[in-house]
């Protein structure tokens, strides 16, 4: 099965999945409404987007210098900085830190980078217990699924699904207990996960930003799970990528002012934490060591390509909340770590255009994603860029031949006019008085679910010519 | 090894011959951080600023208790806890200002000191600043205000002096650094409302991992209204 | 009139391939409106398609070939106007991008782009049209086509023009700015997703139950009308120019022909 065919099969399954369709009907819409409210309440919103874009562009244009600054300052704050060129290397670094710590239980705060490098499987293969502590991540970990959204990983689940899962997995609790409301389920997850936090030897978080000036990581959550992850275990690992830098703390605020507003529609996330190194001698709490892993995994290549602006991304998820394709099919149908418009641009870069180029085809180019992107990534142009690469590499001779033949025709106005005249006449005759075609020869991908409107029968060019002949040129 | 590979790949992508110029541009930006435009809500002064802070707390579901002077804090906490049916026992750090409060005024309130323990019900911290733009509290880790107090107990009570309410995050961080002798503490915790999650069916539920309930005791003592 | 032409400006009508093939009445309506706005309308014979299907399929070379042919076909005219946000955006915004790296062609494309306008925004913003020939009486809703809305900022102009007809009642549907799922070749490359999107759109339309759905792009309209027809709906779909120009003798898109 080709990648496109596999994708289409996933799409059909998603569209037929009633539970998923229910979930998709509510949650992204809530995020969209929330963002709209925040934008309306902040007249400077559009100006902030410009500022944010410029900060990201400046950072990317000086990335080598800021990486070195970050390293220097992180080390002087007591962190150990590790560099990983590939996913394999990053996994190896994490494993060796965990081994050295004698880790049996590892608490994780939500990290898309850890999904990117498939970290959990690698840790579990070493007989370490990994516990996702973001509630959404925890739910999909229980179900053996991938996140279907970068900020709301379990957006595809309804409360009832969660209750079923808890009953199955938390089998040490009374099977007949009440799980009727999200409140009860959150309380149950809290107490189950609290035990894990207290037992964890290593805590792994991602980073929303890295600050070169101070060697800090900035991590935002609403649940507070990242704070417990970085405060209770004796080792803290910040697993992140080289594009997450900002030059100074002053550069972080415009981005943070946009992040939650764009993501969940909150003015600010409940917990925004600037963490700089391990515990200090005078500290009463915090890890004994802090490791920052800087992963490249294709970013440096993107930096020199036409796709550099994708590295501006601050992972808010607004593009997927506002994407009509994402909202129709959900995240899993993309079968990639990052779904939605950002995924359709990033995944071909990370996995190769042969593996994931088809994702860039699945867009109407409606442009809503770039309209809401807080750092003004030209997502449509980038999707088109992947289509260009896919077209150049394509072995799909049918669509190539069709397209080229059509262009040959369109280059010749007379021949084109004749073909249009014939097509208009035939289609119109086939439709008869009904005004529609319920089946279209060669067009059943249209007519399976829609009628095809009949042409009026004569081309505009012909009618205009006739009018000019009858009436003389228009006055 | 990977370090050099990554850095030279990045340098290659950016034109290696300009690396020195990039380095000096980066140092210059760090030496003198840019002043980005701030939205109006991050520039408020005087009563407007105080009012914005209060409105934001209310919208976030944070309980706000005003006292006229620091002396009133222990009694106000005791009243708050009993009104909510919460145990009259809290834990705090070694913060000088918290230590200097007249705890004997609330004689039935038990005060433990040190980092949070797993079964603590109430944590008390002092915030070094409040950013009016979103009703955000800025706390710094350390023995004065152990970070665990902000996250392990079910109820988090935060003492804040009204003079410490500033307009923006930028101002809040400046205040945190000034109070901390210019040193960046291990964590600066910006707290905007209590812990919450929307991960089960999209419904917002309080108390995901951190506190279900957040209360701010605002001390108006010596507040300079301009 | 708000521009500086002493004589009547000569406007080249970029008919669009869909209007040429499917619905000439839209072209005549556009010509009528341009005439009302004091323009001389010219229809270059050498025009065919703007090249968007090739451009959006990643075939830059073919798109460039068609772009150059289109630019040549409209030499010497004061304006180029298209009754489509999507095609107008292609001509105005994407032609110069297509030519980047080729200075001479890029300069030509930029000069061309400056003269290009989407029909409804041209009538309002450039020509300051104050009254329209049409006088539709009834309840309508307007679908904002994506390219016109987001690339060319066409949103107030059609509504302003519709408001010139005293007996029309414009009722906004929910999510009027949501994509209808047409997307050119997308509609046949990913028919299931396209169908989900157009079904959401017809559900929004049903909520306001208009007599007519109007839009500025025939692509969207064929998609919406095709879906409404399959759903057995009586709601009609027309290009907004037809209603504004009073050119409504032909039945709405995908509706049965009047017995002749």
Based on DSSP secondary structure assignment, what is the total number of beta strands of chain C? 8
Q: Structural class of the helices, strands and pairings of chain A?
A: alpha/beta
Q: What spatial form of chain C do the alpha-carbon principal axes imply?
A: globular
The CATH topology of the largest domain in chain A is given as Rossmann fold
What is the alpha-carbon Rg of chain C in Å?
18 Å
How would a textbook summarize the main sheet of chain C? Answer: 4 strands, parallel
For this structure, the quaternary state is: heterotrimer
Overall spatial form of chain A: elongated
How far apart lie the N and C ends of chain C? 41 Å
- Individual helix count of chain A: 23
**Largest sheet data of chain A:** 6 strands, parallel
Task: Report on this structure.
The complex is a heterotrimer of chains A (475), B (226) and C (260). Chain A has helices spanning 3-16, 18-41, 45-61, 63-76, 87-100, 112-116, 119-125, 135-143, 159-169, 182-199, 225-231, 249-263, 299-303, 318-321, 324-329, 340-351, 353-356, 368-372, 379-393, 397-410, 413-431, 444-447, 460-471; strands at residues 80-84, 105-108, 129-132, 202-205, 209-211, 216-221, 235-241, 245-246, 271-275, 289-295, 436-437, 452-453. Chain A is α/β, with parallel strands linked by helices. In chain A, helix 3 crosses helix 12 and helix 16 (340-351) packs parallel to helix 19. The longest helix of chain A has 24 residues, at 18-41. Chain A is elongated, with a radius of gyration of 27 Å. Chain A starts with a helix and ends with a helix. In chain B, the strands form three sheets. Chain B has a six-stranded parallel β-sheet with strand order 1-12-7-4-2-3, sandwiched between helices. With 226 residues, chain B is α/β, with parallel strands linked by helices. Chain B folds into two domains: 1-34, no CATH class; 44-219, Rossmann fold. With 260 residues, chain C is of the alpha/beta class. Helices cover 49% and strands 12% of the residues of chain C. Chain C contains 13 helices and eight strands. Chain C has helices spanning 17-22, 24-36, 52-56, 60-73, 85-98, 103-115, 119-126, 146-152, 156-162, 186-189, 191-208, 218-230, 240-245; strands at 10-13, 40-42, 79-82, 116-118, 138-143, 168-170, 212-215, 236-239. At the A-B interface, helix 2, helix 3, helix 4, helix 8 and helix 10 of A face helix 1, helix 2, helix 6, helix 7 and strand 9 of B.
